[in-house]
Amino acid sequence: MAVTLHEQPGFAADDDVPIPYMARTRAYYAAIGYPEPYRWAHHVGAPFQPLRKPLERARIALVTTAAPFDPAKGDQGPGAPYNGGAKFYQVYDGDSGKPHDLRISHIAYDRIHTSAEDGNCWFPLPQLKRLAAAGRIGEVAPRFFGAPTNRSHRVTIETDAPEILARCRADAVDAVVLVPNCPVCHQTVSLVARRLEQGGISTVVMGCAKDIVEHVAVPRFLFSDFPLGNSAGKPHDQASQALTLELALRLLETAPGPQTTVQSPLRWRDDAAWKRDYNNVAALSPEELARRRREFDAQKQRARAVREGAAG
């Protein structure tokens, strides 16, 4: 009897491929009543700045889309629902020498398959400092930087990315590790990475949304096939987090040219069924879609109030 392709011994399941986040997001927002498709940033080439000095002498900065915890802004804890009130709309920086509590409740990470309990999954500053102490990198830059998750390409390109570049230059940064979380986060940091490279600073993006990062076109991309919110490794798994950052640093050192993608060998789990769930319209009832539309509208109102308050 003939054996079909998907039955061949050793072949992966048909859906064991990177999640198509752009297509899923487009279908999801159309299903909840926003038929105008979002236009994702797209380039067919990328700038490329080779690392100017050996990594063991380089000053490395971190860019994150996570937000500083503020108890006045509602639930931001593990498993918290989407919290538009915790968003930030301007670039911020933090002292790399101090501990920080950064959360991701304000963005659309994968709330089904991860609970955002371990900040090391999205903010690898402790790992960077460990590597500096071990001599793997020269030093951690005195500041890390927060990049606002902005759907507006223009704001990211014209305002936020130049601001991060200016702060990196002020800190004499040699290279930057950028760590996104949600789909739009991946676009944001990819645009920032492009601007940093144009400004003479080497970059590597660590992320989980392969289609979005490669659509923007970045110099170097370490892809981890994990649920969104785990770009820096698996939760409570120091070996995973250490390997993920090490792979990113090796990519900084060895990428032969722009648009170099390396995929981490780590798997979230053997069963790839988790990839079917994120914003999958086919798995959502009309009632659930209507509920999500109401929730989305409420969060938009809350986020607008925060943005207007910040502008005032």
What do these coordinates show?
- The protein has 312 residues and is of the alpha/beta class.
- It has 2 domains: 16-37 and 272-311; 55-263, no CATH class.
- Helix content is 34%, strand content 12%.
- The chain contains 7 helices and 10 strands.
- The longest helix has 26 residues, at 286-311.
- It is globular, with a radius of gyration of 19 Å.
- This is Glycine/betaine/sarcosine/D-proline reductase family selenoprotein B.
- GO terms for molecular function: oxidoreductase activity, acting on X-H and Y-H to form an X-Y bond, with a disulfide as acceptor.
Helix-strand layout with pairing:
Elements: H1 21-31, E1 59-64, E2 67-68, E3 92-95, E4 102-103, H2 125-134, E5 139-140, E6 143-146, H3 153-170, E7 175-179, H4 183-198, E8 202-207, H5 210-216, E9 220-223, H6 238-254, E10 260-263, H7 286-311
